[in-house]
Amino acid sequence: MISDTQKSFKDFLETYTIRKKQPEKRRQPKLNPMFLLSNFQPQNNSIQIEQNFSYAITNTKVNNIDPPLSLRFKTLESEKSNASGLLSFRKNRWKQKEKNQCLIRNSELFNDVIQKSTRFHSQQQLVPIQSQNQMIKGYLMELSRKRKVAPKPQGMDELLNYEADQIYIDVTRRDNMLSLKFPNKNQPGVKLVFRNLLATAYDQQMFLDLPRLRVVHFGMQLTHAHFFKFKYHFLNKYMHLNITTEKMFNCCERIENMRPYILNEILEFEIYGGEEGIKAITKLMYKKILSDVTLAPYFEKIDVATQEMKFARLFFQLIYHLDSPNYSCEVLRERHVKYALTNVQLTNFKYYLSLTLQQTGIPWRNIRQLLRRMDIYKYAIINKNDLQHYVNQLGFNQFIENFVNSCAQDAMLSELIQRRGRQRFVSHCCNIFHYFFRYNIKAITREDLHLIHQKKAIINEKIFEKFKQKAVESVKQLTDDSIVIQDFIEDWDEIKPIILGETREQQILSLGQEYVIPKLISILEYEFFQRHLNKIYETEEAEMSQSILCKLNLLLYGVRFFKKQDLQIIHKRFKITSSQYYDFQQCFKIALEEYKVLNYVHQLIEEYEQFIVSD
């Protein structure tokens, strides 16, 4: 006897076979579902649709295993309604399915595996704990492997070799400007020179054959931009070596001393006429000094010839880019302490030196640099403590920490610290204050500052003034010395146009330096004669055209080789009145009328009024 299920399956096969024999219709119209219901003729045997859904929830515990729950969708039977002929569905109750034996077996096998794994791990010996250094080293090795960067060695020699390799690759291959000057990328001798330059950070001596250095770089046609890029690479490497800021500046000064040899420039020693020229300048300068009533008494018991020879040596050191231990600040302090010199005598000395250099025809670019370098020995000669002394008394790191905390209290500077990062801001502050220490003038030049900041608009004028205000307040907490504070303020004013990207020397060059300066001199000479200002310069040591050129160099180029207090001392002898100074201002307004880009000169003239007028 065939059951209902088997009979239904047989009917299904017959229907499937008949449909296979019929030709397939490509497109058949969709039938209305109501049409299907109205013409539906149910079969005598009901179609049973069963779906079994079972799942087992087993616990991982060995001793307490809950039986799995087997759920099942029961039969939904369709029957024909006697009244309407529509389908009616009858819902049966849920029934729990009996436990399947295979599930029990699988659960036992699973728990057996868990027990064996637990016993295996418990029998294993514990791995010895690694030391902290081993863990750090392993982490760094893994991190470097992921980043594909070799880890830095820890020893000094290994570190120098590693950094020398890195900077050699940066200079000869990665730098777009410098790599063109190194067609041969494998030069062990050049790499050794780089290593020796880096080794100066650890007080290792480096002996250079300067004439050979000039010969090696003779045909490379290097410019100041090339030298700056080269110096900037080493500046960054010195920072990565984690040396003190003072050592970093000393290393930069050693590189700066090589500039004229690498760029194949004429040495300042030759510009001043060599040894004979320096002796002639010295004799002429001391002749002016001995005729000054304020300076002559200091040379009464001194052999002038011996003093001329000593100054010639100091002069040679100022222009030759090399330092001598015989003329350091400490040595000069010891030699001049018995004379009890003041800033008045030193300023008059610089004034006569300036007149002498102008009289001998030295270019003003070199005069500006030489007079500015004289400030290196200023506080040693007058036997006063400089800014660095007061900062070191507190402790340089402590001073920087106090200064940064003071800046963090200002809303504008606090935003700058957050934007740049505190560590980077602290490093920047260290570099700024070390730049203001006297002897670092030769380490980082004005040209370096210009090239560093020319493409960066990080600091605007408001931020600069806030920064300067906080710095002056911090220095005033250390000392009340008027000379130290005034020099510090003027140092900030000197670098302001450079930091803000307003290089005044470039502006003069763009106007045509060889044409503009003589034209301004002729206009000012005429205006001075019209207002009878020429009578001020009718003295033996001052000549009006030279004095005008000196003033233009001080006002136009932004190099403050004479500070405001120096100008006060120099002009005190001329006894300039307010009306004369007003005429002086009007002369400059007429001379600069067609050069609007030079309007900053009028602001400087207003600032100098209180120091020059003697009313």
Structure explained in plain terms:
This protein is mainly α and 615 residues long. The protein is built from 30 helices and three strands. A three-stranded antiparallel beta sheet has the order 1-2-3, with no helix packed on it. Helix 19 packs across helix 23, helix 23 packs antiparallel against helix 24 and helix 29 runs antiparallel to helix 30. The longest helix has 23 residues. The radius of gyration is 45 Å and the shape is elongated. About 9% of the residues have low confidence.
Write the layout of secondary structure elements.
Elements: H1 4-21, H2 33-38, E1 49-52, E2 72-80, E3 87-90, H3 101-123, H4 132-147, H5 156-174, H6 188-199, H7 210-216, H8 224-240, H9 245-256, H10 259-262, H11 268-271, H12 274-290, H13 304-319, H14 329-336, H15 343-359, H16 364-373, H17 378-381, H18 387-394, H19 396-408, H20 411-420, H21 422-436, H22 446-453, H23 461-476, H24 482-499, H25 504-511, H26 513-530, H27 544-556, H28 564-571, H29 578-591, H30 600-612
Antiparallel strand pairs: 1-2, 2-3
Helix pairs in contact: 5-6, 5-8, 8-9, 12-13, 12-15, 19-21, 19-23, 20-21, 23-24, 25-26, 26-27, 26-29, 29-30
